Amino acid sequence: MNPTEGYDISRAYNLATGSQLPERASESVPHSGEEFITNPAKGKRPAAFTKECVLSPELAAFLGKERMTRSDVVSSMWRTIREKCLIDPNQKQFAICDEQLFKVIGKKRFKVFGMMKYLKSHIRDPSKA
């Protein structure tokens, strides 16, 4: 006999937590960002990571846009590095620069997880640009 046979997981969850187990996983996840706002009257300013920034001409040429948020820059860099097959085949945590990426990074080979330290000089705040 299987040890879990006849075992009602939802009943055990109800007894352990005092609440009901959601029927579907999507019920436990909020459907819109409105549930996460604690106090909309405070008017919090946007985080630096989500603020649109001006890119240097070298980085703009590599990514194809002149303005992006920092998170979009990192996502686009990852996507472009993968599309151009610039990941080092021997050590996949490194990327090997082509001519265009070399103008941005300044090194022939760099650790991809640390790319932001090379990109920070190419991303400027629009109010200070």
From TrEMBL:
Top-level division of the source organism's lineage: Eukaryota
Any matching Pfam family: SWIB
Coiled coil: none
UniProt-annotated stretches for the region Disordered: 19-41
InterPro entries for this protein: SWIB_domain, SWIB_MDM2_dom_sf, SWIB_MDM2_domain
Domain DM2: start-end pairs: 48-125
PROSITE patterns in UniProt: SWIB_MDM2
Annotated SMART domains: SWIB (SM00151)
Protein name as it appears in the record: DM2 domain-containing protein
Organism: Hypsibius exemplaris
